[in-house]
Amino acid sequence: MRLPNLVRAATGVxxxxxxxxxxxSDASAPPQPAATFAAPYxxxxxxxxxxxxxxTEYTRVSDQILHDGGADAERLAEVAVGSFLExxxxxxxxxxxxxxxxxxxxxxxxFVLQRYSPKTGPLELISVYLCSDVSAVxxxxxxxxxxxANERDDLxxxxxxxxxxxxxxxxxxxxxxxxxSGTC
Amino acid sequence: MRGIVAVLAVLALVVTxxxxxxxGASSGCTDLKRRLGQCPSAGITDDxxxxxxTIESPGASGSGSDGGDIGVGIDDDATVDLxxxxxxxxxxxxxxxxxxPATDATGPLSITDIATFRPQPPTAGMQPNxxxxxxxxxxxxxxxxxxxxxxTLFGDTAQVRFTPIAYHWDxxxxxxxxxxxxxxxxxxxxxxxxxxxxxxxxxxxxxxxxIRLHVSYAAEYRVSGAGWLDVIGTLTIVAAPITATAGHAxxxxxxxxxxxxxxGVGC
Lengths: 184, 267
Description:
Chain A has helices at residues 3-21, 44-67, 82-97; strands spanning 101-103, 107-116, 126-133, 138-140, 155-165, 170-181. Chain A is of the alpha+beta class.
């Protein structure tokens, strides 16, 4: 009849051992915060709303430049930044010198936050996915022939990154990638 | 720095040298390319993301403003695969392939860089430690968390971020379970010992059991500090198995502590 107590005594010793010695270690290392950057948005929701507003303005300016045949392409600097801006400007100048023109506007919707990284500084502060619909957009060369590829998918999910300009307190598009073509 | 991103992101699209305007290879999908239908696209295979490029510059496309490069086309081809769990059981491997410069366009493809990214292996924990009581809950948990592994690709910094997303338990008694949480100790959950937890398991029979844990990770990668890009598919890593013994425990009412009163009722 002693067995139960022995089992329980052993249980106590083993439990004490297991509880004290095997707590799971949380080895996650948080990213190092930037020294002087204050997060401009308190929540993910605010960040997403700001990104949506910034991207809407970006497409408005971009469409306007294309409608103007690429004239005054430097306007894009109001809404984009970095090497992405530089690439866009090179293309727009070529667009202008070739005498191309565009009609219609892109429609963006279904913004989803991919990442808001307030602790890592203003560079690529926010990334979002969004649905881009270019079905209304046409681009023609100087003789009126469409330059749009036959394979163009009118709908596509885009991944867009934004960099925060601290002086202007404004989000600027700093990268744009095709994420999934043909679907949103 | 940007050059590396460009290698990662150039077109998978084959731009045929017909009469449409082809704007140059670049790292992003500019608005103009998007509207023309010339944007890069990322291919997806079973366990890898393939981001590749083939741009056939027609040379004499007629629309260029510089008027140069007449004649032979130039093939620029760059692909980077990030493969997880495929042929590299413990990690992800980034494989970059580029062709030589245009002046040597007939030369063989060369692998310019390979970086291997391995997540830190998870470990399994259990309470009680390596034994269990038949009929009562045994608490299992996984020790792992999101972490970043650094490496290099094309001489530049590359990182892969692993996030555990599923925990597959084989309890050794013929039952398995897939949990969405790692689980923690009873103490950390502030529940009494042998209480059920979201990750606990009850053994029905005494015996020796081998408990196995596999953890599935989602992976993202980035190069040169650019934005994180998802790796399609998951990577499953095996933790070291645990062997443990299940036994019966019974309780009886006794009259005082049996050590103090060894002849008492129940002792």
